[in-house]
Amino acid sequence: MRWAIVLREQENRVIGSCGYYNLNEANRSVEIGYDLHPAHWRQGIMTEALRAAINYGFSNKFPFWLNRIEALTYVEHEASAGLLRKLGFQEEGIRREYGHFRILVLFMRRYPKRKAVFFAAFLFAVIHLNPLTLDLHEVVDVISIFFMGLLFTYLALKTGSLLLGIIFHYLHDVFLFLVQNTPGAGETLAATLLYAFLWIALVIGAGLTKTIVERWPAKGSRTLGSQA
Amino acid sequence: MVHKSENQESGSVSEFPVLQTERLALREFGRSDAQAVLKIFSQQVGTKYHNVETMQSLEQAEKLVNVRASGDWACGGPSF
Q: What is the pLDDT of residues A29-86, one digit of tens each?
């Protein structure tokens, strides 16, 4: 349920809204959310609106008896946190990776999943281009980086976490750093094989992740793709 | 205070609770509120701390208003 907030002298012009969502009757809890036109910030409007909404929530007019009202804000949004504190809310913690609207998530809101994955990987590849040293060799490198981006995106989508991608990226860069700083190592068969092994490990890892995630799905919500 | 509204999906009548405060009225959303909603969410500052994408067309605002105005008010969809 969502209330439209209007000034009493101008009832047809909505300046914001507030309301309840994620009603959970079994747990007797609910989440509260709100928005307000920036022109009306810092005037105590939302305090007044939420006070009414919360009173209603804890009254016997609410669809069920309520024990708990939850609210989410962005960590950096001090004004919103201050408002909640003023209304008697207590901070309980930070939802990790909840509101991080990464480039992939932004793309996924706009495009179908496959397209979003493609764009994210493409961007990952393009930002690796160095305009100062641009040559054919580097363009070829970027193609392989694109495929690496595809795999990272796949891992992030499957596991709801960036961890595997970060680990592989780290291993990959450490390997390249070692090879490039050891004279002659780049040409050895061992280095080539090791590099190939890294890639094979990534592909196998992605395949394994799919199996593991599908067989033992994580409990609780995945929040990577949260949307309005 | 309560006012009556038609539940469009089931055709049943549900009561939407209108609330009054000193300066404000909290009422039900209607289709004509889309323009005002667009004004809130068409600016970066309005969506920066909200899980709504910055809106570029009235159509996007209408979509959100329709969700907010939809009949079964006791069922809350995901939103901040």
A: 999 999 999 999 999 999 999 999 999 999 999 989 999 999 998 877 889 999 999 9
Residue numbers of B between 35 and 54 with CB closer than 8 Å to A: 36-37, 39-41, 43, 45-46, 49-53
A226 vs A7, A115, B58, CA distance in Å?
32, 18, 23
Q: How far is A105 from chain B (nearest CA, A)?
A: 11
Please tell me the total count of domains within chain B.
Answer: 1
- Sheet strands (E) in chain A: 2-7, 10-24, 29-36, 68-71
Assess A17–B contact: CB distance below 8 Å, yes or no.
yes
Interchain CB distance below 8 Å, B75 and A226: no
- Better-scored residue on pLDDT, A213 or A115: A115
Show the tokens assigned to A221.
Answer: 């919500």
Q: Do A49 and B26 touch (CB under 8 A)?
A: yes
Structural domains present in chain A: 2-86 (3.40.630.30), 103-215 (no CATH)
Structural domain of residue B49, as residue ranges?
Answer: 2-69
3-state secondary structure of A197: helix
